[in-house]
Amino acid sequence: MDLFDHASQKEQAVLAPLAERMRPTSLSEYLGQEHLTGEGRFLRRALESDQVPSLILWGPPGTGKTTLAQLIARSTGASFETMSAVLAGVKDIRETVARAQDRWKLNRQRTLLFIDEIHRFNKSQQDALLPHVEKGTVTLIGATTENPSFEVNAALLSRCRVITLRGLEQEELIAVMRHAVADPRGLGGKVTVDDAALEFIADAAGGDARKALTALEAAAAYGRTAVDRKVAQEALQQKMLLYDKGGEEHYNVVSAFIKSMRGSDVDAALYWMTRMLEAGEDPVFIFRRMVIFASEDVGNADPRALGVAVDALRAFQLMGLPEGTLPLTQAVTYLALAPKSNAVIAAYAAVREAVTKEGALPVPMHLRNAPTKLMKSLGYGGGYKYPHNFEGNYVPEDYLPEALRSRCFYTPSRNGFEAELSERYEAIQQQLAARRGEREPGEDG
């Protein structure tokens, strides 16, 4: 490094955002993850014994995943290589591995490879990484806001330990900001920030230390020498909602929305719906979830629910925003208050299990198509009873393969319209049972 490079780095350090300047340089400065770094906890013991395995760091934004990876590298004396899964490809992985192999051969120095947003690696990229993690050529630390169970290959996941980072509590965020106010790397005591302002910013940050420090820096620039709650509010303009459309909190809010409708809590359902909209969620995504809900959780207890959800989606597509929030709200209130039944999804699951277990059972002869004389002579279609030729347009008949004729897959609930379907279903089952009782054993109708 020449003098110009050194001067450039010093200049960048001064101009860097407050959150970057205040990045902890030791575990003693690292706040908010005591369940991992506290005395006797997993990560501290791994560092003290110099036996850190490959890790997947899973947590919301701003909880210190990158910082933790850097601290691990510094503590273990490993060379720190970093790449973004958004930009890197298989070629980058191979080049990094080659450097790691040379580093070990020449200096016996290990390499810690930090991959940010590892959930964005596709299968081929993860497969390219797998053998080098398995051999220990690199110690992998992947960071993700997504559930790694869904986004990381099982083979790679089995060779890593997943550790979960949590959003910081209000007291922890306030401690982080107070440190930034006083530290020479931060505001250096040049700005006073009162407790009310710190509490407001911590509440607005929603557990994200990076957001808190960014907001603190904006408030300090706005207030110049002093920051109170009013200054903080004016600097931030509006409270920041914790909602990452591609992250874990996205699924948490969607889950709360669905469960509120399922639990018939219309007010909670409206709250979570609005949370998603105000945070910038695509309304069509919300409508899709509601269409699924109309079949999965309401079903035949109120067959109109599916039509309400689909019609609301069509109305939204005609209206757009902001008027489109009206059919959305109408549909949410209808679905939340509709009678509930999961009999539809339960029926499908039961049938699927039977199909998987029993395989392709033969179609009963009387149900088979008979387009040729030969097929008719073989008994195809023989004995089929046309329901419309009978009173009430119904005649008791067996339509399932013989091995499944005693099985009942659909169990209607006693809720809403499905109570009426339940009565019809039971009447049909009774007639079928009576018919089967009259037949000779082994008869195939």
UniProtKB/TrEMBL annotation:
Keywords, in A-Z order: ATP-binding, DNA replication, Nucleotide-binding
Entry keyword ATP-binding: yes
Domain AAA+ ATPase: 51-168
Highest taxon of the lineage: Bacteria
GO molecular function: ATP binding; ATP hydrolysis activity; DNA binding; enzyme activator activity; single-stranded DNA helicase activity
GO BP: DNA synthesis involved in DNA repair; DNA-templated DNA replication
Keyword check for Nucleotide-binding: yes
SUPFAM superfamilies listed in its UniProt record: P-loop containing nucleoside triphosphate hydrolases, post-AAA+ oligomerization domain-like
Family: Belongs to the AAA ATPase family. RarA/MGS1/WRNIP1 subfamily.
Function statement: DNA-dependent ATPase that plays important roles in cellular responses to stalled DNA replication processes.
Protein name listed in UniProt: Replication-associated recombination protein A
Lineage: Bacteria, Pseudomonadati, Myxococcota, Myxococcia, Myxococcales
